[in-house]
Amino acid sequence: MRRSGDTASAPLLRLTLLSVLMGLAGCGFRLQGSASVPRSIALVRIETSDTESDFYFGLRKALLAAGTRIDEDGHDESAAVIQVLTDSITERVLTVSALNVPTEYELSYSLKFAVTSNGHELIPTEAHVLVRDYSFAESALLAKEREKKILSAALAHDLVTVVMRRLSSL
User: Fold this and answer.
1) Three-class secondary structure assignment of 66-113
2) What is the pLDDT of residues 80-121, one digit of tens each?
């Protein structure tokens, strides 16, 4: 048994859905992690002293996902250069127990970078610091060490996102 209002609501539902989808497409909505970079930095060389850091690996992965080629050997003069001047993690004690045992730490990830292309400064030197704290318990030493590694990787990922947003804004 059909009600007379059901046939009229189907086209209205389709029209509403189409309007929402067109609105999302028109406002520049993109899925997270799908940053695009301008053609001026289609070829990039990453200059850093630490090629084993979480940030370096994350930046390489994000650049490749955005369609950028990476100049591994550094022979192409037309490559944009991302200079990673500082890429470091520091840890400091925030609180201690009555027995002078640390109970909370602060993890800071510092990044300083600049971007140049053909001798022109695209992004002047910028410094970014992200901070997170975590609790510590000696009884869960292995778990807390794992938590520290996860937090530092998350901070590096967040900094990669910052850099990719800056690159996409060029």
Assistant:
1) CCCEECCCCCCCCCEEEEEEEEEEEEEEEEECCCCCEEEEEEEEEEEE
2) 999 999 999 999 998 888 888 888 989 999 999 999 988 899
